[in-house]
Each structure stands twice: as structure tokens, then as C-alpha cells.
Amino acid sequence: MTYAPTHLCLLGAIGWEHEEWNGSFYPEDMPPEWRLSYYNTLYDCVLLPYADWSARGIEELNAWREDTLERFRFLLEHPPGTVSEADRSRLDALGEKGVLMGPEQNERVVWFDSSSNSRDLSAKLQATAAPGTNFYLLSLDADQDKMEEARSLLEILGY
Fold first, then answer.
1. Distance of alpha carbon 134 from alpha carbon 154, whole angstroms
2. Is residue 8 within 8 Å of residue 134, measured between CB atoms?
3. Is 125 helix (H, G, I), strand (E, B) or coil?
4. Where are the beta strands (DSSP E) in 78-148?
5. Best label site of 11, 49, 67, 112, fewest CB within 10 Å?
6. E strands within 7-78?
7. Number of C-alpha atoms within 13 angstroms, CB side, residue 36?
8. Minimal CA–CA distance to 95: which of 79, 125, 71?
9. What is the distance between the alpha carbons of residues 65 and 75, in angstroms, rounded to a whole number?
10. CB 142, CB 14: distance < 8 Å
11. Element (DSSP H or E) covering residue 90
């Protein structure tokens, strides 16, 4: 019998465009417009601050949706309050890949950075996991080594 978790932890970072990733994570000759497609082959989600996604046009957001795998999610920070028509249109452009992240979603996020230790991170993940829900493991500083450690931890924990 195969174990199938009743919840899923998606791993990602704040944004996918980090200057320090050029030549280490992204090949040096990779055009910037290919980076999201590359990022989403290794990570499951990306958190985008409100200022980043709310300034984008519908066509660009449609392209993001098309350039990513079905499982990929865009976590969209949103300030408290009502969602504007313009923001609703942007969210609709991303389809099911767009997830609004207001303050009430904070309990579904586990943050880590280069100074996080695996034991503490494991405890936080296990405390956050709940049957039938997805939750998110997000890097604050986009440290590639620590993100790989986090991926290994998720595999060990069965997420």
C-alpha cells in the first residue's frame, strides 16, 4: 500500500527574479522571459507582493498561467479589504493558479531563511499540516542551498 498524504506542502520563494540566481540557479545565457518557466520546474509556487502583480497587465498574467505547470500556484499578497474589479480581473487571468493571500492565510504559510534549522522547520511544518488542505513553505531570502534542504525535508516528511 502506498502512503498518500491528505495535504500538500508547496515550496517556493518570494519572487523568481533574484539577481544572485543568475549563473548559479539560472544558466547565464537564459533569457529573462524564460525564468518563470524554469523556476516552476523546480518549485511549486511563488509569492508575489501586491505591488508586483497588481501592476501587471492581463496579457502578461495570461502568459504566466500558460508558461507554468498545472500544479504551480501564484500566491498573491493582497491588502486587507475588498478586492477591486481590476485585481479580480488579474486574478481571473491566472485562473486556479492564482491564490489571494490576505492576512487570514498566514496560518497556511511556514517561512524560512538561510538561518533556519531543519529540526525547527520540521516541527513548524508538522504543526501547520492539516488534513484536506494545502499549505506553503516559503523562503524569505531565496537562499538556494536552504531551499534544497527544505525540498529534502519535505520529501522525508512525505509532503
1. 13
2. yes
3. helix
4. 98-101, 109-112, 134-139
5. 49
6. 8-14, 45-48, 73-77
7. 19
8. 71
9. 13
10. yes
11. helix 85-94
